[in-house]
């Protein structure tokens, strides 16, 4: 009797699950992207790149497993090779930029829940040889004593409000992204002078090659996110080629395996162009990920170099995450 009621209970649970899957989320490819995991109050750098706390990340993993057919790099590639439409709600977890939190927090939890994710690496950042430009900007603004900044060619100044430094950082980073008249390197250099702060020379903020190798061996996917994380549409064709080709060579040499996946830095409309898409194709990347904030419903060739992702940020609880997904679909 007990066995029977147990079985009935499990059967009911199964159908409730099947029901909830079909009712909740339509067929398609849902790609959930993260950057950093942890507490933004603990960093000397950009607090806006934290996706969620370690606890919430683990809850997100449980939620994805109960609601989606989870993919890894290989099953994702198979899907594009073998199918012409999405027959289920599929989901993939990705991480951009290659912060060390990926190894310290995300990787053990992914293993614990028998899940994989794809980590997109900026090869210049590996081993902390170079600090991301947004982290440089954040460090300068957090450590300066000046109250506002204006680069020489800007028509307006931006306040640095110490009580809400995250918002000030966000505003100045937006000005950096919108301004294509100078290279990011030159803009950072002007900001360094304006803030009168020295940047740290070497940081342990990003993954090491050793850590990336360990993650790859354990079944995680590793893709390219360029050499230096520029806004590709601001570059010449040749400079774009260098960013996409050299990062692929570096990953291949370091890991003994050619990366098949690429994600466009920033990835919003206007931050990459048809040249970027052509280069991804010519350089033999199989798939490329954008960041326009939607769900992919059509499985066709046009999706191959424009797979959309949603950004998981703001330390969402599972309930907030579920509501957020409903909003974007
Ligand atoms: Zn990025």
UniProtKB/TrEMBL annotation:
InterPro entries: Glyco_hydro/deAcase_b/a-brl, NODB_dom, Polysacch_Deacetylase. This is NodB homology domain-containing protein. Keywords: Signal. It comes from the Bacteria. Residues 89-329 form the NodB homology domain.
């Amino acid at each position: 009797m007990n066995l029977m009621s147990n079985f009935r209970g499990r059967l009911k649970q199964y159908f409730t699950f099947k029901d909830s899957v079909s009712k909740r989320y339509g067929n398609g490819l849902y790609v959930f992207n993260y950057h950093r995991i942890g507490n933004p109050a603990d960093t000397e750098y950009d607090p806006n790149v934290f996706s969620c706390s370690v606890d919430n990340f683990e809850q997100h993993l449980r939620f994805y497993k109960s609601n989606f057919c989870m993919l890894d790099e290989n099953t994702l590639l198979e899907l594009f090779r073998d199918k012409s439409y999405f027959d289920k709600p599929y989901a993939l977890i990705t991480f951009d930029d290659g912060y060390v939190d990926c190894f310290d927090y995300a990787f053990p939890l992914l293993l614990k829940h028998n899940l994989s994710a794809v980590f997109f690496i900026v090869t210049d950042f590996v081993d902390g040889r170079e600090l991301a430009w947004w982290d440089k900007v954040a460090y300068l603004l957090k450590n300066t004593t000046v109250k506002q900044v204006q680069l020489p060619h800007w028509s307006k100044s931006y306040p640095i409000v110490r009580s809400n430094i995250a918002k000030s950082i966000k505003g100045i980073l937006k000005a950096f992204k919108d301004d294509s008249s100078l290279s990011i390197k030159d803009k950072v250099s002007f900001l360094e002078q304006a803030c009168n702060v020295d940047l740290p020379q070497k940081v342990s903020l990003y993954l090491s090659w050793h850590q990336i190798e360990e993650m790859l061996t354990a079944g995680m996917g590793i893709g390219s996110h360029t050499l230096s994380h520029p806004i590709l549409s601001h570059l010449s064709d040749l400079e774009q080629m260098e960013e996409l080709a050299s990062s692929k060579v570096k990953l291949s040499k370091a890991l003994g395996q050619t990366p098949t996946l690429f994600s466009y830095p920033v990835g919003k409309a206007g931050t990459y162009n048809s040249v970027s898409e052509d280069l991804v194709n010519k350089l033999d990347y199989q798939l490329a990920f954008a960041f326009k904030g939607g769900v992919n419903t059509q499985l066709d060739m046009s999706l191959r170099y424009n797979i959309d992702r949603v950004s998981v940020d703001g330390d969402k609880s599972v309930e907030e995450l579920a509501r957020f997904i409903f909003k974007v679909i």
